[in-house]
């Protein structure tokens, strides 16, 4: 979804006037356009609109007028997208944290969070998503024969960083690898939604952009191109959207009561790793689970091995301040931040969609759910 597209260019004139005019009086609670009148947006303060934007993953900068247009456009996109949703089909969300050596993904399955029937209203699920796969992949070593569903797939060895293992930058090689990766992911998980971490060029404090960030950006573009081409050829395909990491961090900072004060990159990384650790800790303990709000469920044995490995290393890091050996079973997970990023991204994006839908139906009062449902 193009959330930042100017509203006036993307919405017919009559509908646009309906959205922004406080004088408009709706004669029906379910307009033919498929979404309720958003006149309440024009009555809110800029601070309210910024809070609303952060709660739904929308860019929160700009004037009140810009925010109103951006949010209204997102409401319209939300309604149009959900017209094609089968409410009986579960969502299979594949969340990808980009990288060449450190690509990671999480696969989440959840009942359709709401009905597409605008006449009966939305039904919001209280069922958290179930994590069914959680992997790190060295893309440079990926082959078509890679089996994400095998038992061996959970035993992921330590992967060198891009800075210590330079790879030959050949567009044809990247294209071949990207095609193999995407087609294997599609055939293995049949995702209904694919969420991809948006890349940005970084200099690392230097005077030039680091080359590896350009490589990852090129690879990111190839994934989008392949997904678009496959959808055009087949006539169907998953919904694909990019997510900016900073918006995930901003959302989590408020929801997890971490605050929105400036944090260093190291502090942000630790926060994300700890949030996932708290989500997953005690997942097999019925008493512990009963006494807290669950944000994610854990699937069958294969992914549980991965979760156990994450928790073992997380607890070791927290108690010893080092790599952490911990105790108990679990896969060898190596770095925690990539795994944390892809899971946080997938769960956060899903919560954004539910909140967007609720705002379309209920207005600003839907944000009260954030105050009563915080961890």
UniProtKB/TrEMBL annotation:
> GO cellular-component terms in the record?
mitochondrion
Q: Which residues form the SAP domain?
A: 41-75
Pfam assignment, any one: Ydc2-catalyt
Gene3D superfamilies linked to this entry: Ribonuclease H-like superfamily/Ribonuclease H
Drop me one GO molecular function for this one: DNA endonuclease activity
Check the record and name the SUPFAM superfamilies matching this protein. Ribonuclease H-like
Instruction: From the UniProt record, list the coiled-coil ranges.
Output: none
Any idea what this protein is called? SAP domain-containing protein
